[in-house]
Amino acid sequence: MKPYSVYLFDFDYTLADSSRGIVMCYRNVLERHGFHQVDDHAIKRTIGKTLVDSFSILSRVTDANTLETYRKEYVKEADQHMTANTRLFPETEEVLHALKARGARIGIISTKYRYRILELLGKKFPEGFIDIIIGGEDVKEAKPSPEGLLLAISRLGCPKEQVLYLGDSTVDAETAQNAGVDFAGVLHGMTTREELAVYPHVDILPDLTPLK
Q1: First-to-final CA distance of the chain
Q2: pTM to 2 decimals?
Q3: What is the extent of the structural domain holding 43?
Q4: 186 by DSSP, 3-state: which?
Q5: Which of 5, 9, 108, 113 could make a disulfide contact with 162, Cβ separation 3.0–4.6 Å?
Q6: Secondary structure of residue 189 in the 3-state scheme
Q7: Are residues 168 and 183 in the same domain?
Q8: φ, ψ for residue 101 (rounded to 5)?
Q9: How many Å separate Cα 208 from the centre of its chain?
Q10: 68 and 111 co-located in one domain
Q11: PANTHER family of this UniProt entry (predicted)?
Q12: Contact by Cβ (8 Å): 144, 48
Protein backbone atom coordinates (compact mmCIF):
# COMPACT_ATOMS: atom_id res chain seq x y z
CA MET A 1 0.00 0.00 0.00
CA LYS A 2 1.36 3.43 -0.92
CA PRO A 3 1.83 6.04 1.82
CA TYR A 4 -0.88 8.70 2.13
CA SER A 5 -0.72 12.14 3.69
CA VAL A 6 -4.20 11.84 5.24
CA TYR A 7 -5.75 8.77 6.90
CA LEU A 8 -9.46 9.02 7.69
CA PHE A 9 -11.07 6.31 9.79
CA ASP A 10 -14.52 5.06 10.62
CA PHE A 11 -14.83 4.69 14.41
CA ASP A 12 -16.94 1.69 15.50
CA TYR A 13 -15.30 -1.64 14.63
CA THR A 14 -12.41 0.23 12.96
CA LEU A 15 -10.63 2.10 15.74
CA ALA A 16 -12.69 0.86 18.66
CA ASP A 17 -14.94 -1.94 19.82
CA SER A 18 -18.05 -0.35 21.25
CA SER A 19 -20.22 -3.36 20.45
CA ARG A 20 -20.85 -4.18 24.12
CA GLY A 21 -22.24 -0.72 24.79
CA ILE A 22 -24.14 -0.60 21.50
CA VAL A 23 -25.83 -3.95 22.12
CA MET A 24 -26.71 -2.90 25.66
CA CYS A 25 -28.31 0.37 24.52
CA TYR A 26 -30.28 -1.17 21.65
CA ARG A 27 -31.46 -4.03 23.83
CA ASN A 28 -32.65 -1.72 26.61
CA VAL A 29 -34.72 0.31 24.14
CA LEU A 30 -36.03 -2.64 22.14
CA GLU A 31 -37.08 -4.66 25.17
CA ARG A 32 -38.75 -1.62 26.71
CA HIS A 33 -40.99 -1.59 23.63
CA GLY A 34 -41.69 -5.31 23.54
CA PHE A 35 -39.03 -6.53 21.10
CA HIS A 36 -37.55 -9.42 23.07
CA GLN A 37 -36.39 -11.71 20.27
CA VAL A 38 -33.62 -9.60 18.69
CA ASP A 39 -30.26 -11.32 19.17
CA ASP A 40 -26.85 -9.72 19.66
CA HIS A 41 -25.62 -10.78 16.22
CA ALA A 42 -28.47 -8.96 14.49
CA ILE A 43 -27.72 -5.80 16.47
CA LYS A 44 -23.99 -5.97 15.68
CA ARG A 45 -24.72 -6.34 11.97
CA THR A 46 -26.36 -2.90 12.00
CA ILE A 47 -23.34 -1.11 13.50
CA GLY A 48 -22.34 1.71 11.16
CA LYS A 49 -25.88 2.51 10.08
CA THR A 50 -27.86 5.42 11.51
CA LEU A 51 -29.83 4.78 14.69
CA VAL A 52 -33.12 5.25 12.84
CA ASP A 53 -32.17 2.79 10.10
CA SER A 54 -30.91 0.26 12.64
CA PHE A 55 -34.07 0.42 14.74
CA SER A 56 -36.17 0.01 11.60
CA ILE A 57 -34.17 -3.08 10.57
CA LEU A 58 -34.28 -4.62 14.05
CA SER A 59 -37.91 -3.86 14.91
CA ARG A 60 -39.41 -3.68 11.40
CA VAL A 61 -41.09 -0.46 12.49
CA THR A 62 -41.34 2.11 9.68
CA ASP A 63 -43.24 4.95 11.37
CA ALA A 64 -40.88 7.94 11.48
CA ASN A 65 -42.19 9.34 14.78
CA THR A 66 -41.85 5.99 16.53
CA LEU A 67 -38.32 5.52 15.21
CA GLU A 68 -37.38 9.02 16.37
CA THR A 69 -38.65 8.11 19.85
CA TYR A 70 -36.41 5.03 19.83
CA ARG A 71 -33.47 7.13 18.66
CA LYS A 72 -33.88 9.63 21.50
CA GLU A 73 -34.17 6.81 24.04
CA TYR A 74 -30.99 5.23 22.66
CA VAL A 75 -29.06 8.50 23.06
CA LYS A 76 -30.09 8.67 26.72
CA GLU A 77 -28.99 5.06 27.22
CA ALA A 78 -25.68 5.79 25.48
CA ASP A 79 -25.05 8.77 27.76
CA GLN A 80 -25.00 6.29 30.64
CA HIS A 81 -23.41 3.20 29.15
CA MET A 82 -21.43 3.84 25.96
CA THR A 83 -18.05 5.25 27.00
CA ALA A 84 -17.60 2.79 29.88
CA ASN A 85 -18.26 -0.09 27.48
CA THR A 86 -16.03 1.05 24.60
CA ARG A 87 -12.41 -0.02 24.13
CA LEU A 88 -9.87 0.95 21.49
CA PHE A 89 -8.50 -2.05 19.63
CA PRO A 90 -5.09 -3.13 21.00
CA GLU A 91 -3.10 -1.68 18.11
CA THR A 92 -5.06 1.57 17.64
CA GLU A 93 -2.98 3.90 19.82
CA GLU A 94 0.36 2.66 18.49
CA VAL A 95 -0.76 2.88 14.86
CA LEU A 96 -2.16 6.40 15.18
CA HIS A 97 0.99 7.60 16.94
CA ALA A 98 3.11 6.01 14.18
CA LEU A 99 1.11 7.77 11.46
CA LYS A 100 1.44 11.12 13.20
CA ALA A 101 5.17 10.56 13.69
CA ARG A 102 5.49 10.17 9.91
CA GLY A 103 3.79 13.52 9.41
CA ALA A 104 0.41 12.19 8.29
CA ARG A 105 -2.82 13.81 9.37
CA ILE A 106 -5.58 11.64 10.80
CA GLY A 107 -9.32 12.02 11.19
CA ILE A 108 -12.53 10.19 11.98
CA ILE A 109 -15.75 10.07 9.94
CA SER A 110 -18.54 8.31 11.84
CA THR A 111 -22.28 8.08 12.26
CA LYS A 112 -21.56 8.15 16.02
CA TYR A 113 -21.94 11.59 17.54
CA ARG A 114 -18.73 13.62 17.67
CA TYR A 115 -19.07 14.44 21.36
CA ARG A 116 -19.25 10.74 22.16
CA ILE A 117 -16.04 10.03 20.22
CA LEU A 118 -14.29 12.94 21.95
CA GLU A 119 -15.45 11.65 25.33
CA LEU A 120 -13.50 8.43 24.78
CA LEU A 121 -10.51 9.76 22.85
CA GLY A 122 -9.96 12.56 25.36
CA LYS A 123 -8.83 9.89 27.81
CA LYS A 124 -6.31 8.43 25.35
CA PHE A 125 -4.87 11.25 23.25
CA PRO A 126 -3.82 14.86 23.86
CA GLU A 127 -6.12 17.64 22.68
CA GLY A 128 -5.74 18.26 18.96
CA PHE A 129 -4.05 14.91 18.27
CA ILE A 130 -6.88 13.92 15.92
CA ASP A 131 -6.86 16.53 13.18
CA ILE A 132 -10.57 16.33 12.39
CA ILE A 133 -13.65 14.48 13.62
CA ILE A 134 -16.90 14.49 11.64
CA GLY A 135 -19.77 12.94 13.60
CA GLY A 136 -23.39 12.22 12.89
CA GLU A 137 -24.47 15.66 14.06
CA ASP A 138 -22.15 17.38 11.54
CA VAL A 139 -23.86 16.20 8.34
CA LYS A 140 -27.29 16.27 6.77
CA GLU A 141 -26.88 12.88 5.09
CA ALA A 142 -25.31 9.86 6.79
CA LYS A 143 -22.94 7.40 5.16
CA PRO A 144 -22.88 6.04 2.48
CA SER A 145 -23.41 9.66 1.48
CA PRO A 146 -19.92 11.09 0.92
CA GLU A 147 -20.88 14.34 2.68
CA GLY A 148 -18.87 13.74 5.86
CA LEU A 149 -15.82 12.42 4.05
CA LEU A 150 -15.83 15.29 1.56
CA LEU A 151 -16.32 17.80 4.38
CA ALA A 152 -13.21 16.48 6.14
CA ILE A 153 -11.17 16.57 2.94
CA SER A 154 -12.29 20.14 2.26
CA ARG A 155 -11.43 21.33 5.76
CA LEU A 156 -8.02 19.64 5.62
CA GLY A 157 -7.37 21.14 2.18
CA CYS A 158 -5.85 18.01 0.67
CA PRO A 159 -6.18 16.38 -2.78
CA LYS A 160 -8.34 13.25 -2.84
CA GLU A 161 -5.47 11.15 -4.19
CA GLN A 162 -3.59 11.76 -0.91
CA VAL A 163 -6.45 10.43 1.22
CA LEU A 164 -7.13 6.88 2.42
CA TYR A 165 -10.43 6.07 4.12
CA LEU A 166 -10.50 2.97 6.33
CA GLY A 167 -13.60 1.19 7.59
CA ASP A 168 -15.01 -2.17 8.52
CA SER A 169 -18.32 -2.22 6.65
CA THR A 170 -19.77 -2.15 3.16
CA VAL A 171 -21.30 1.21 4.13
CA ASP A 172 -17.76 2.53 4.59
CA ALA A 173 -16.62 1.02 1.29
CA GLU A 174 -19.55 2.60 -0.52
CA THR A 175 -18.87 5.95 1.19
CA ALA A 176 -15.29 5.98 -0.11
CA GLN A 177 -16.49 4.99 -3.58
CA ASN A 178 -19.07 7.79 -3.58
CA ALA A 179 -16.43 10.29 -2.46
CA GLY A 180 -13.89 9.15 -5.05
CA VAL A 181 -11.16 8.29 -2.54
CA ASP A 182 -9.12 5.14 -1.90
CA PHE A 183 -10.54 2.64 0.57
CA ALA A 184 -9.00 -0.02 2.79
CA GLY A 185 -11.17 -2.51 4.62
CA VAL A 186 -10.48 -3.58 8.21
CA LEU A 187 -11.72 -6.97 9.41
CA HIS A 188 -12.44 -5.97 13.01
CA GLY A 189 -16.18 -6.08 12.56
CA MET A 190 -19.01 -8.29 11.34
CA THR A 191 -18.38 -7.78 7.63
CA THR A 192 -16.42 -10.47 5.82
CA ARG A 193 -13.46 -10.08 3.48
CA GLU A 194 -15.66 -11.33 0.64
CA GLU A 195 -18.32 -8.70 1.32
CA LEU A 196 -15.74 -5.89 1.36
CA ALA A 197 -13.94 -7.17 -1.73
CA VAL A 198 -16.99 -6.42 -3.89
CA TYR A 199 -16.12 -2.72 -3.61
CA PRO A 200 -13.06 -0.87 -4.95
CA HIS A 201 -10.23 -1.14 -2.42
CA VAL A 202 -6.47 -0.84 -2.14
CA ASP A 203 -6.29 -3.47 0.60
CA ILE A 204 -8.29 -5.48 3.11
CA LEU A 205 -6.45 -5.64 6.43
CA PRO A 206 -6.85 -8.08 9.33
CA ASP A 207 -6.38 -5.13 11.68
CA LEU A 208 -4.68 -1.71 11.67
CA THR A 209 -1.15 -2.99 12.34
CA PRO A 210 0.03 -2.93 8.68
CA LEU A 211 -0.37 0.87 8.70
CA LYS A 212 2.58 1.29 11.07
Answers
A1: 11
A2: 0.91
A3: 19-84
A4: strand
A5: 5
A6: coil
A7: yes
A8: -65, -30
A9: 14
A10: no
A11: PHOSPHOGLYCOLATE PHOSPHATASE
A12: no
